[in-house]
Design goal:
This protein is mainly alpha-helical and 535 residues long. It is 75% helix and 6% strand. It is found in: Membrane.
Amino acid sequence: MVNFGHSTKITLCHLELQARVAKRRMQIQAGPLEMLFEKHFGNATSIGNKVVKMLRSLVQPYDGEIDSDSTEDDKHLSAIIDTAEALATRKLKTYGEDNDDTEETKVDRVSQPVLKRLKSHLTKAIYGRFMKRCKLMFASSVTSCHKKFEESQSLCYDTIPFPIHYFTCSAMNSLTLCKPDRFKIMSHKYCELGQVQDAARGTHESLFSSELDSEMSGLENISKTVKHQLHLNLHFVAVEAPELEQGYSVNQLQTEMKHDLEYYKIILATFDKMFTFLIIMFTYFVFKNCVLIIMNYLNDIEYKNYFTTPYFWHIDSKRRREGKVFLWPLRKEEIKFNNLISPFGLPRSDEIRKMTKAFVRWIVLLFVVIAIVMLDYYYNRMLEIVIEHGKMLSEQTSYSHLNIKVDGEGVVANLLKEILNFNYTGYLKEELTNEKCLKNASSKPDWLYNSYSLFLPVFLILLLMVFFNFVVQRFVFLVVMGIIFPYRSKARIIHLYNKLLLARINMDKLNEAKKIEEKKENKKKIEEKNNLKDK
């Protein structure tokens, strides 16, 4: 981890150094032009902004209206108008007025809608917006009226008791009072047909001239011209920004690497938490096995109860001194039948199998430890080679001179003098080295620390968990458990002794009975032989 941190610092330091070198190269390539822009760009920008604001004030009021594409505002207006027209259609269908044509409607149908007389796509789009805003006035009146009368009618039904409200509240019908069909006719005449009624003459006059197409085309051309002139203000962005982007791209790379480093730290921290979790789970399983062993030790008196401990022989010697039946020495049949073993005896077959499994796990652990140590060594060696052979010296020298003089009189000449008059001489000499990036020495492997912190524990694990695994288990089972549960330990040994003693007594009785039976049979055989001889 320490060497990983050093390598990251070295990489980031070299990126910072490369950024400085790239920036200086850009300054050398730009020469005095950069100083010219830094000195006079403020004045040129302020003057240009004034011109731009004036031109924009001419275009901005109608800039959005000459766009041929549909906008969100257009969609919103269409939704309101569709609602009002739906109310008008509903009234006509409800009251059976679908085929009723007024005289005024028949006159209006003779006229051709303005939208069909227009040819240009742009002019149709502009007139379409006008028509929607015109219809919006009528549609808003209809929807507002409909909403108010619906609320009034609902309040009437809730307030006036049954059945009076059927006679009074039904008169508040929004379809008949608001007259949406009348508003639909008016919006068709004034908005779609573009007509206005002259009350004095009794005639209809058109709101739009016949030259609307050419006028809108001229307005679009003026707007495009002004917008094209406004693009001149983007000269600095188009010319200077790419150079600055090249100069600062290394800084961006450095920032991205710092972010990646943070991600790596998060990943390593996650692995650390996972490793801690595995250790906790391993500890849990170890303690779980210990709990199972303790429960079997306390509840099952026959569990691993085959050790002839010193207390076992103490009981036997006491019985021998008292002249009672004792077990010393144990017979081979008893040892084999009851699987008896001394606490200081050689390992049994099941203990040898456990030692073999523990040895396989120890081999895996040893391989992991050696791999980590070797990886740390080679990583450290790689850093040493980089530090030893990675020294770098960058020297940059430049000289630049620029003299701009504007001659002339007048307003334009004075403006150009204010912006362009410039006299500059520059000299640059800089040496950059990466010594500070390499001054952090890598963390060399501490073999003494590795010996007593890694290899010594591995060797102790080999001794305690492999070669002397059976000794440790017997010590824990007989000594530690005997200290923790002394009465249970004595009860187990007494139970084993009584079981063997009872088996010994029964076996002796059986052997005596066999001997008596054999004596009787031998005696009978002798008597039979004697009787045969007498005859």
